[in-house]
## 1
Amino acid sequence: MNNLSEVSERLANARGLPETLAAAHAALDVMLPVIYQRQDQADGAYAAFALAGTSVASSRLALWSAPSLPRLAASPVDADDLSGRHAAAADDATSALAGLARLLASRLDDAAASAAEAGDWAACAEAARHARAACSSLGGPPP
């Protein structure tokens, strides 16, 4: 998974809690380097991207506590493996990130609603809350 559209598709098509959690985690791993790259550009969007990055990192951290998250999905991704792969225009990247954050919030809300274990429910609900915050920071409509 090396771009926003691929992880969006994977997340949209995920079935079952473990697959949804793994897809959400992969999406968050792809989002972070894109956000970090964008926040350092001199176009006045630093605050929006810094806030979105904090929310995305917090969402990923919340998912790590989900008992149903496949352990291989929780392995940290080397940021060097992901950097430089996202050459989208600034507006396109912002829109894609906001859309993916909205999708994350929606899928994680659904996952929380279907979670049988309290730990999964809590992790999904917290991760969804942070995804909604990222979407809002990026100017996207609420999920």
## 2
Amino acid sequence: MSSIDESADEVIFPLENSEPVFRGLRASWYVEGEIDPVAFIRRPSPKDEKGLSVDMRCEMEHIYSSFSCKAIAGLITEAVVAIEQLNIEPDEPQHANITGLPYREDDEKLAEDLASALTDLCYVAWEKPKKIS
């Protein structure tokens, strides 16, 4: 099954269970090799209306060159959708949203619990090289 982006006439195929999705990590979200669960909290409304933004089917360079990040977290689709209420919905050929995450202001405990669960599932797919002094 695929969806069609009417504006660009592009067919967007659903993710396979084994496919990874990626989230760029700001410096404050990745400190001393540890990923802060806040990286998986939706920004206050009206931002992140479609869900939590992730990249897919792209090179790491695409992510870190378009988003100033210190590292990139990877998540396997099957692990994300195994969490009750979460799904990954592609909306562009190289972009998707993790849906089902509440805004923190709507349900702080659930938002933080799900963010922690996603943090436990993720891995570091890319890390900005350290400067040699």
